[in-house]
Amino acid sequence: MIGLPTVIVGLFLYMLLSRSGPLGFLSLLYKPQAIMIGQAILITPLIVSLAYEVFHKARQDYWELAISLGADTKQAYYAMFREVLPDVITVLLISFSRALGELGVALMVGGNIRGYTRVFTTTIALEIAKGNFETALTLGFILLVIISSITAVVRTLGVERE
Amino acid sequence: MIELRDVTYTYPNGVTAIRNLTLNIDSGVSILIGPNGSGKTTLLKIMACIYKPQSGTVLIDGKDYWKSNRREQLMIRRNIVYVHEKPILFRGTVIENIMFPLLIRGYERKEAEIRANEILRELGVENLGKRKRKELSAGELQLVAFARAIVVNPKYLLLDEPTNTLDIEKRKIVEKYIRKLSQRNKRIIIASHDRLLAAGLGDRIIILEHGRLKEITTSSKILDEIKAFTSQTSI
Predict the structure, then answer these.
(1) Would you call A134 helix, strand, or coil by DSSP?
(2) pLDDT tens string A106-136
(3) In this complex, which of B83, B91, B105 lies closest to A83 when CB atoms are compared?
(4) Using CB atoms within 10 A as the burial measure, which of B36, B95, B162, B219 is most buried?
């Protein structure tokens, strides 16, 4: 599920939310909420999978350690959460970064409506289609800076963790 | 006294590590020895009430841990401290790690810090106090884990391979401290591959094989075995 292609999610969601679709009565198509739902579908498996690894290992290590030192259940969970907090933040930032750079879902269910559902990636796609490569490149560069900053934060947290 | 009655423990992957084991451990230093996979670590974790056996009874000072209520279980566990084979420290400094078991027992921060520093001094490693886990060698990690365990003066101290990464000096310190604890009527149970450690420290040697109790013997018998082995290899 982590590698789910964004266009597949977009297509699936479009069929669900379109007027003739099973969830058409909600009138969510081409609204920001539709993009949010799509992004949530896209990144939830990533969050669950990474967070499961983090908590599984933390339970074996830190929870068991706290218990073996005489902690009660609450104290053991508190000690464990304190240890995994940087990892959990890392997981969330990685997932946010994936959602930020996503195009398929935003384009198909958002409709790229100016001032309403237009996001970074759909704007870049539109500018390329219009032949405005300079604007597209500038926006692409800004997106790259944002994602690189997130990566830098993730790495810093990784170092802090140790 | 720790009493195990007909205890069997099987891991979720289906491997049975302990089979129908009955054992009583009371005063002094008891050493669990046996080959890899004989169930030493699993047995220690059962005694530390971390692992719940699928069958059998674990009695700590006459109380069935797994049939006790939560409050009683906590009271029982606070008399037992288990030190992992691969020591894990929490984030923060060595002092903060040693303070952890004291703080969860309700000690004031200042008092906990004083006691933690005292223990480090007793072990001759007061210089480690402000270091973080990534700044410690494997031996220092093991020593800090030992310090964190003894700071609460537990009635039962369970040590899994406590000296395997220590140099001779640190090993002597730990062995000396274990003897001291034993004289203070603490019960120490050690899992080890090290027969020399067993011969030097153990009041009683418990030999495990394939998760079963093979034999309970004395340190002098182990020492004789070592001597016999040494004379054979020197020929």
Answers:
(1) helix
(2) 888 988 899 999 998 999 999 999 999 999 9
(3) B91
(4) B162
